[in-house]
Task: inverse folding
């Protein structure tokens, strides 16, 4: 099965509206000859519509970093899937480890958020990954198993046709530490077989599994050449278009 590589950038809580627009414009220019690889950036909610307007009709797609699972209501400070879609996003990141660590996100809320994203026609990027302690205690596969089965509970494979899975070891996010080739390879292989066991071989072979955790131009070749890695979710290095384009261009 041919999976189109996917390089996505999570801008986290960085960049004002004008900085975000300036960065997006530069990225669009740098992407002039990009093909056969999907590119997405996820600005803050405030910048999202501005950035969406400036990348419209280009190779660069837009994602949100989070959503709230209710359609609307008295939920101060929250943003719904429908609002995100209307603002111009195609993708939404769900269950990022920073959301799990600092904002009490659980596998149950991840599951509800996925449902809401899918109902609104947003493509979900579901993040999973173990902490350093969990890895040291040899619980990596157990944790991933739980995150996948609880996060995707109740879904049929047809509903998950646009699902993207992002394996992001928590200890490698924003730390400069990257998982080594052997670690990434065994986890991605494990996830591929888990999707096969839980859904079907066909589903497993068409679902993209990204790696995330301190991906940068210097290590992109080593990480992206691993068999079951279909692209990257990039934090820090996606903030600088000159660095991000080098990651994207691995696939050209
Ligand atoms: C992320 O935010 O998903 C991420 C992987 O960050 P970084 O690339 O900075 O480690």
Result:
């Amino acid at each position: 099965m041919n999976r189109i590589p996917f390089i996505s950038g999570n801008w986290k809580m960085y960049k004002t509206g004008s900085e975000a627009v300036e960065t997006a414009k530069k990225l669009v220019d740098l992407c002039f000859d990009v093909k056969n690889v999907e590119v997405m950036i996820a600005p803050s909610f405030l910048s999202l519509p501005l950035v969406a307007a400036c990348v419209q009709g280009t190779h660069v797609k837009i994602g949100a970093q989070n959503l709230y699972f209710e359609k609307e209501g008295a939920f101060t400070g929250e943003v719904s899937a429908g609002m995100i879609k209307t603002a111009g996003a195609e993708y939404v990141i769900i269950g990022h480890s920073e959301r799990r660590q600092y904002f009490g996100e659980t596998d149950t809320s991840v599951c509800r958020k996925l449902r809401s994203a899918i109902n609104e026609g947003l493509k979900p990027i579901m993040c999973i990954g173990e902490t350093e302690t969990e890895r040291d205690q040899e619980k990596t596969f157990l944790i991933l198993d739980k995150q996948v089965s609880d996060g995707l509970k109740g879904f049929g494979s047809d509903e998950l046709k646009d699902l993207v899975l992002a394996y992001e070891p928590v200890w490698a996010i924003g730390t400069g530490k990257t998982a080594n080739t052997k670690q990434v390879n065994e986890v991605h292989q494990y996830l591929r077989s888990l999707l096969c066991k839980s859904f079907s071989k066909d589903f497993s072979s068409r679902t993209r599994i990204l790696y995330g955790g301190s991906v940068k131009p210097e290590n992109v070749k080593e990480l992206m050449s691993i068999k079951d890695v279909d692209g990257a979710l990039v934090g820090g290095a996606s903030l600088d278009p000159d660095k991000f384009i080098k990651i994207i261009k691995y696939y050209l």
